[in-house]
Amino acid sequence: MPPLFDKILQYLPLPRVLSPLPDFMLAISVGLLPTLYALWSDPSLLFHFKRLQQVFQSNFWGFFGPEVDKGGAPVKIVLLPYAEGVVLEIGAGHGHSLKYMKRDKITKYYALEPNTDMWPELRKALVDAGFSEEKGEAVILPYGAGDVSKIVEQLGGENQVDTLISVLVLCSVPDAKDVLPELCQRLLKKGGSLLMYEHCLSPVPSSRLYQRLWTPIWSIVFDGCRLDKDTMTWVNQIKWSDKHVWRKEGEPEWSLFFHGVGRFTL
């Protein structure tokens, strides 16, 4: 985007306020009918709202996911080849991250994905990336990021992970401010790395206001995703021995989907 145009948009509130609307409406248009069908087939979903959110998420993610992956590809091409050793990915979804990793650098891959409706596509991505569940090269764990003790138990103890991957998932993690340091300190080996690409709170005060205005309704439709999480501040508060932080190229600071990228070494 030309710098002058970017500067003008920074001071025009309406385009920024409405910028999440196309994605919001598209998600509803794609996910609503399949979710209503699922509800018709199993009315008990009405009494399990979190599960209903997961059904909706899985229905629209088949359409949405590849486009989101494409938009983040320039970042992931640079970031994810650093994955090595024992790798654990938080919220692996359909496994879009796998194709950016170097298979020969990874000894074992753990996919943390609590939404079991995502698993069929995730398993296809594992096979395409050269991982075998049968041989123990990959393991899918049905846990959320906050289930740290259960994750540790499955890993066989604390500090077993060489690389922790977080790609557009911490926005949906409850209590992420507390969960993130616990994950890093209990899962990562000394010298292990966190590879992170997340949308975060904008540096522009007015945009932060709009993010907070959108978040209540956005989080309902997008399975708990919050636009107003100050993730970069939280991750920078962890004691790292080394870190490299950068931004998504060409993205304006006023964006309501402002992203932070980083490679952090414990």
Give structural notes.
There is one protein chain. 45% of the residues lie in helices and 18% in strands. With 266 residues, the chain is of the alpha/beta class. The model has no long low-confidence stretch (mean pLDDT 92). The protein has helices at 3-10, 13-18, 21-41, 49-79, 119-128, 148-155, 176-187, 205-221, 231-236; strands at residues 85-90, 106-112, 138-141, 161-167, 188-199, 242-247, 259-265. The chain has nine helices and seven strands. The chain is globular and about 45 Å long. Helix 5 links the parallel strand 2 and strand 3. The longest helix has 31 residues, at 49-79. A seven-stranded mixed β-sheet has the order 3-2-1-4-5-7-6, sandwiched between helices. 38% of the residues are buried. The chain has one domain (72-265): 3-Layer(aba) Sandwich (Rossmann fold).
